[in-house]
Amino acid sequence: MSKTERSSHRVALLPEEKRAAVSVAILIALRMYGLFLIMPVFSVYAKSLPHSTPMLIGMALGIYGLTQALLQIPMGLLSDIFGRKPVLTVGLLFFIIGSIIAATATDIHTIIIGRAVQGMGAIASVGMALVADISREEVRGRVMAIIGMSIGAAFMLAFITGPVLYARIGMSGLFWLTAVLATLALIQLHLFVTEPKRHKSTRFSLAELISTLKNPQLLALDMSVFVLHAVMTAMFVALPLALNEKLHFPPELHGRLYLPVLVLSVGIMLPLIIKMEKSGRHAQYIFSGLLGLGLSQLMMPFALRSIVTVAAVLVLFFGMFNFLEAGMPAWLSRLAGEKFRGAAMGMYSSSQFIGAFVGSALAGYLMRNGYESVFFGTAALVLVTAALVWLVNRRVHQPEQA
């Protein structure tokens, strides 16, 4: 372990690092908020749209993640060549245009188009690469933790506020709101974020790019974030229905459960982030986080007997989810080379959004056998991934030990 790694917890963030971290966290959180905001209410709304079918409703929900996944790598690579801010600007403009299309839609097909265009603004990888560019290595873990916390908060905020806002402003209003927030984010990007010019490059080597993306530790991280978001979306396809039908806990009250759970989960996430960055043992902590996430899924079927037991398991779930959401990009930023960091982040973000898309489909398939089958299925998926991370890390370090 290097001196830098041992002392990382004592190095203060510079003002420009704090400003960049907060600004990019807001940009990424807005994207995730837009992804999840309609999920608690969209299926009810969409039933009344012309030409609506269950398949098209599912497509409208999932196509955002699909177009995000397809474009994360190209957008990340373009940002390596032309710079982060220009690509972030284009991505936000796509998101605004897609939001307006969806806000003015009067049928399910136009909603699908709008959601697809929203997803074309695939800026998650570019935003994380920009933060990695601006931040020093010894504080990058904490900067990435800010990004991860913003994603977790956006997810929870969307589920808490979505039903309330829908009751007040309708589905069209939700899409108009996301367009306004993205416009504010675009203004903020150009007022408060300065991109280091040295990170722009017009030189391109396909061999170097392939070598970067084939790194076994990067591939293990890609698999991990795929599973992390598959579990998250699968869980929140099944859990709201289980709360309503098994525990008779109405959807309009779910926000009262989620809010305190998120607050308490910070007590798990923050100490783990601090200890990981202090020790520098990223692989071991990511492995442990996956084990904890898998444990939460194994416990959930047995917790579906009272709100208190569900809340306790959710604290563990969100503590581990938010730790991994923050910790994995921090490790990724260390593993990826500077030249193709955007492309590496693109592969990572693509895996993230594909996982979200696959998770909802997996939950729909498994729920035919009951809610419990969803949680047992996601537990198995997480534990297999944890084993993969452990094996890859052991293989990478074997030559060093020899």
Give an overview of the whole structure.
This protein is mainly α. It has one domain: Growth Hormone, Chain: A (Up-down Bundle), CATH 1.20.1250. Helix content is 82%, strand content 0%. The longest helix has 53 residues. 51% of the residues are buried. The N terminus is likely disordered.
Task: Itemize the secondary structure elements and their pairings.
Layout: H1 3-6, H2 15-36, H3 42-46, H4 54-82, H5 84-103, H6 108-120, H7 124-134, H8 140-192, H9 206-213, H10 216-245, H11 254-279, H12 282-303, H13 307-335, H14 341-366, H15 371-401
Helix pairs in contact: 2-7, 2-8, 4-5, 4-6, 4-7, 4-14, 5-6, 5-7, 5-8, 7-14, 8-11, 8-13, 10-13, 10-14, 10-15, 11-13, 12-13, 12-15
Defining traits:
Growth Hormone, Chain: A; mainly alpha; single chain; disordered N terminus; 402 residues; 15 helices
H/E element order: HHHHHHHHHHHHHHH
CATH topology: Growth Hormone, Chain: A
Number of DSSP-assigned strands: 0
CATH architecture call: Up-down Bundle
Question: Structural class, judged by helices and strands?
Answer: mainly alpha
Q: Can you tell me the CATH superfamily?
A: MFS general substrate transporter like domains
Instruction: Report the helical percentage.
Output: over 70%
How many domains would you count in the coordinates?
1
Largest sheet: none
Mean pLDDT: 80
Radius of gyration of CA atoms, rounded to a whole number: 20 Å
Give the uncertain stretches in residue-range form. 1-9
Separation of termini? 18 Å
| Share in β-strands | under 5%
Tell me, briefly, the overall form.
Answer: globular
The CATH C-level name is Mainly Alpha
Question: Tally the helices: what do you get?
Answer: 15
